[in-house]
Design a protein that fits this description.
Length: about 325
């Protein structure tokens, strides 16, 4: 197979509850469409069966719209890329099955993309791009990792969560506070209006790993104790509580990232994943960069949450390396 210097790549992302399609060509992201599923708000979390059914409804119109926005037709596509995992099996099956069928019909290569690697490679969508090696803090609803990135596909996870992820800590804290789902953006909004005056314990994990389950429990017990004395405590102090919760989650993340920087002696750091859209975390990592004299990389907001643009970016480098999948491709739920 003769590879093209500037392939037109159609990418599909369906790992959780967002259906996304993107078109990439000649170093430019021509389109990046995302269909969200608001239905999960009423359940306080993603319902896998509901998510997979919604993907089946959304995937055709999302791909069609992405192609039209990019000014491309199906016969212009040189490669189809898709998230193979990790994620929800039902959701992944919709995207993988669609991508395999489309690649087969168009007689073009198929590329499988690791969701977490794609979050890291989102830094290469726009300039300035990181220089290898760099450390990336990947924070989302399901994952919290510190990754040593030596090359596009030479990544080593040097720190990960042993229980809940940072995004889960935000969402579970928000549920305790009576906020909607997803709670992360809501906590961020309230935190901007409050003061971090309540103290929550920091997990004592010796290595670069994270733990957030204990923090969630301490927040729950703290609020129960305060409500015994004042049943309106949460309503009267919501902004300050959110500021305190957010401050502690961020301090845990930044402390471990700082330790990793000193251990691996890198000059550049980045953050990616849904939680990297948090304004407090973005501010904290910029301050860390200034303090340690590091170059800091933060993707645009549209490339922080689950999106097909990051899948397209990862696929571009796999295409150049000749790393293709075949029709035997099956999705996986865990790394």
């Amino acid at each position: 197979m003769k590879l093209k210097e500037n392939p037109v790549i159609l990418a599909i992302e369906s790992s959780c509850d967002d259906t996304s399609a993107a078109v990439f060509e000649s170093g430019k992201m021509l389109s990046n469409l995302i269909a969200t599923q608001a239905i999960h708000e009423q359940y306080g979390g993603v319902v896998p069966e509901v998510a997979s059914r919604a993907h089946q409804e959304h995937i055709l119109p999302v791909v069609d719209t992405a192609l039209k926005k990019a000014g491309k037709k199906l016969n212009d596509i040189d490669c189809v890329a898709v998230t193979a995992g990790p994620g929800l099996m039902g959701s992944l099956l919709v995207g993988v099955t669609f991508a395999k069928s489309l690649a087969l019909c168009l007689d073009v290569p198929l590329i499988d993309v690791h969701h977490m690697e794609a979050h890291v490679l989102a830094h290469f969508i726009d300039d300035p791009q990181p220089k290898f090696p760099f450390l990336n803090l990947t924070v989302s609803g399901g994952h919290t990792q510190i990754v040593l990135v030596k090359d596009f596909f030479d990544m080593k996870v040097v720190g990960t969560t042993i229980d809940d992820a940072a995004g889960e800590a935000f969402d579970k804290s928000g549920k305790i506070l009576g906020l909607g789902y997803p709670a992360g953006p809501l906590i961020d909004k309230h935190a901007a209006l409050g003061v971090a005056k309540f103290s929550f314990p920091e997990p004592q994990i010796a290595n670069l790993d994270f733990s957030f389950s204990g923090l969630k429990t301490s927040i729950l017990y703290f609020l129960k104790e305060q409500q015994l004395a004042n049943k309106d405590f949460i309503n009267e102090n919501l902004d300050d509580i959110c500021a305190s919760v957010q401050s502690r989650i961020i301090s845990i993340l930044i402390k471990k990232l700082t330790r990793a920087v000193r251990q691996y002696k890198v000059d550049e750091i980045g953050i990616s994943g849904g939680v990297s859209a948090n304004s407090g975390l973005r501010k904290a990592i910029m301050e860390t960069g200034e303090k340690l004299n590091l170059r800091v990389h933060i993707p645009k907001f549209e490339y922080c949450t689950d999106n097909a643009a990051m899948i397209a970016m990862a696929a571009y480098y796999k295409y150049k390396a000749g790393l293709f999948a075949d029709q035997a491709l099956v999705p996986f739920t865990r790394s």
